[in-house]
Each structure stands twice: as structure tokens, then as C-alpha cells.
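ok trying again, last paste got cut off:
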Amino acid sequence: MKSKKIVFSFLILVLIPIIFFFGMIFIKDPLKVFHQNWFGKNLYMNKHMYEQAPGIIKNNSFDSIIIGTSMLKNTLSAEASKYIKGDFINLSLSGGSHNERSMIMNYAIQNKKIKNVIYSLDYYTYDFDNFPKRFSPFLFDNNIFNDFQIYMNDKYLKYIFFNLNKNKFNFKVSSLDRPLADFNLKKNIDRFDGLENWINNKTPNNKVRNKKYLNLIKNTSKKIKQNKIKKLFDVDKEFKKQKKGIDKYVLNTVVKNPNTNFICVFPPHYRFRFARWAQYMPDKFELNKKIIKYYVEKSSTYNNLKVYGFEDRNFLDKIENYKDTAHYHYSINAKMLKWISKENGLLTKDNIDEYLKIIENKALSFNIHKLSDKINLLEKEF
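nice, full thing came through this time. structure:
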């Protein structure tokens, strides 16, 4: 009897701390992995969508998603719902690789009846089979028990048990329309409206960031003048590798979900980016053309896939619309939704060759040297 009491007491002493430990994690649950917020009506989000997405998907009502990179994170879900007809939510994540977004997209489709997916076809990371270190695939396997792993670190445990470090990963949002939107931040607003604002920007982070892009333009001009054209890879071999990633991370989901409409968009970066490829790294430009054409060919096979491109538009030539060589003003997100609702910009097998011809001509005729000279002149003024 005495030995049984000892064993029982030992188990109690061990189990109580374990139950308390995991109980506190379950109750506090800042990512809403296990349940919706139990305390208060304030809506708090994790700044990292790759950790927050499962909680959003499980605890909210919607039938359509926006799953892009920073190219789509400023897209208003309410406007998407208005123009595309659906109940949208924006799950875009900054710098999201295709394998990361594929897992979030498939998790949403598995857990909700998804009518529409708006997806950005960013050029990079098609061939990555390994997830970035920041990503936690176990959050997307529908096994509730291994979800506790996400909280097994100093950052979350300090918050859960001592209410510390909250501002490092949590922030208040008013709605889930575009939770990671950054269009209204002063550090971004100050970078639009022309080269003058790229150069004469006193914010320390912006100054460093803008300097990087300004130097990129000047160095590209210099290399082209010196005829130092950069060779990156064999286009056919690289396309074969990229195609593998496209099939695995994007088209596989399209094929498996015929009742979901996939609206895929090639982001309209500042023309310099495409001009740099065409004039300085032609193999990269050729690869991008092959990728565009491949998607369009597949869209003629799958009725639930539509591909949009806006690279033939004149707004790409106006630096005022961009805060750097990639990111456009948030108003362009709204314009793209309007165009998509009218199938304006839809790429098909009938117009793809003409589209590719136009964007190549525009990229080759863009005057990188003139842009570089203007930078040098303005830098002297400021």
C-alpha cells in the first residue's frame, strides 16, 4: 500500500506541472491554433502569416482566398469579393515561396469549400523542395497534438506564462480584409512619387534600402555599357527544373480541385526589373517568357485556371507608381481586380505570342542608362 501511495504521489507531482504547462498553452493560444480568442473582442494577429494561417482558416468563415506574396498583401478582400464574387480573405505572406503558399492554399481547400483562389505567380522559388527554416509544416497536417510544437520556444513561452514579448510577434488589426497590409505605413508612403523620394529619404531603413535599388540601377547600366552580359544558366535545363516546381506546387492543386477557380496573376513590377533581365541577363528573361507561356498553355487545358498578365501596360514605365524596382502602389491592386472582373489582361493561347512580343520590345527599349544618369544628377542635387 505504501509503495502504491508513493507511486501515486509521484505521478501526481509529475502530471500536475505537465497538465498546467500544456493547459496554459492551450488556453492562451496566441496563434489560435486550437480555438478562437476566449478573452476579449480585440483581434490580434501574428505578423508571420506562415504561423497564423492555420488559425485564421479554422476560425473564420470565408469561401475564397488571396494567397500571394507582398505583391498581393495590399489587396482588399472586400474589393475582391465585390469584383470576383466570393467571400474573400487575404492570406498573403511577404516573400512567400511557392511551397509555403501551396501548403497554406491546400490546407484552406481541405478545411473549407473554396470557390476562388487569387494567386500571384512570382518568378522565384519554384524548385525548392525544402521548406524555409521559418516554416512549420506540422501546423498544416490536421494533427492537433503536434501543433503544440509551435509554442516550444522562448518567444512564445515568455508571452504565454509571463505576458512578455507580445509586441515582437502580435499586433492588433481591425479586420481580416488585408491583415498584413503595409500601404498605409509612412515608411512606405514616403518612397512613392518618383526618384526624388528614393534619394532624398531621411528614414534610416529607407535610406539603406533605397540606396540598394539605386546602386542596382547604376551598376546595371554600367555593366551593359561595358557589354558584360551576365550568363546565369542554360535556359532549357533551368526551365525543366522550374516546370517541375510549377507542376508540383501550383498546377497539382489546380488539377485536384476542379470546382475551385484559380485566378493566377503575374505581378507587374517596375519595368526596370524586366529591362534588366532582357538587356543584362537575357537567359533569365527567356526563362520568364517560357514560364508565362507554360502557364497559359495549361490554362487552355484546365477550365478552372485563368492566367493574367499586365506587363504590357504603360503604368510599369512610371517610377512614380513604385516604391522600389518591384513593389507597386496599392491602388494597382484594386485596378487589377477590376481588370480581372472584365477578363481584361487574360492571357490565352490566341494572344500569348503577341503579349510576349510586346513585353520583350518594351523591356529592350526601356532606357536604363537615362534612368541611371537621372539618379546621378539627383544625387548631386541632394
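cool. The mean pLDDT is 87. The beta strands are 44-46, 64-67, 88-90, 116-120, 170-172, 261-266, 305-309, 346-347.
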